[in-house]
Design a protein that fits this description.
With about 240 residues, this protein is of the alpha+beta class. It has nine helices and eight strands. It has a five-stranded mixed beta barrel with strand order 1-2-3-5-4. The structure holds zinc ion.
């Protein structure tokens, strides 16, 4: 068989005594589960190549539901991510989300591209900014983007708070009747920019101001509220 792919390793779990079960994301095949036999043996030459958040070249037998790895070599280890706990935490969130929203063996070129570009962007942009834009784009893809052109309840253009349950900005009057949290104008402005942005707007977004963990938390809250998908990496990241 000997198929060849380039893929991002999203997750790696131990399998039996010395094996590894990988979740990888490739352009041509989408998310795949790959069995890497003997990967944890001391002398395995593939061991370093199959860590999460690594971009590799792989030779394997592609088979649903589980493909079989023959060999792997690193294209990009993303060292700059692994040397920084904040970057690593946000990158882990991105990989977990990519895993949750992708379908097995279904190519999703857009999701693949933004995931790959997000990991590369950690070399030049603040991690929280990358996280905010990535989660915002995921929400957009799923059709659950927050409403940020006026109050989501009454259309009033004067807004003062964000309501996750209502799906976006709310005005001071409506804020009293729904579950919402008040934010200052700068916070709301940055939130709105990230909701409106595409991946290509990353550098323009960086000039708007500082994207914080608190902003990322609002995006993640939207994701969790609408999908009910638990995000393990977020539980770690939010405590940073
Ligand atoms: Zn209103």
């Amino acid at each position: 068989m000997n198929d060849r792919i380039e893929a991002i390793i999203l997750k790696a779990d131990p399998y039996k005594e010395t094996g590894g079960l990988l979740q990888v994301f490739s352009k041509e095949h989408g998310r795949m589960t790959i069995l890497a036999k003997g990967i944890l043996k001391g002398n395995s030459k593939n061991a370093a190549s199959v860590q999460p958040i690594t971009y590799c070249h792989m030779v394997l037998d592609i088979k649903e539901p589980i493909s079989l790895l023959h060999s792997a070599s690193i294209i990009d280890f993303y060292r700059y991510i692994k040397e920084d706990i904040t970057k690593l935490s946000v990158a882990s969130l991105i990989c977990e989300m990519a895993m949750q929203v992708s379908s097995p063996y279904q190519p999703d070129e857009y999701l693949y591209e933004i995931t790959k570009e997000a990991l590369t962007a950690f070399n030049s942009y603040p991690p929280m900014l990358i996280g905010c834009l990535y989660v915002s784009l995921i929400l957009k893809e799923m059709g659950i983007s927050p409403m940020v052109d006026g109050c989501v309840v009454c259309d009033d253009t004067k807004v003062s708070a964000i309501s996750v349950s209502e799906g976006g900005f709310v005005c001071p009057r409506c804020a009293r009747n729904v579950t919402s949290k008040a934010y200052d104008a700068n916070f709301s402005r940055l939130f709105r920019y990230a909701v409106k942005a595409e991946w290509s707007n990353l550098s323009a977004l960086a000039k708007q101001g500082e994207y914080t963990l608190e902003l990322l938390a609002v995006f993640v809250e939207f994701f969790k509220d609408y999908t009910s998908i638990p995000l393990k990496s977020w539980e770690f990241l939010r405590k940073l």
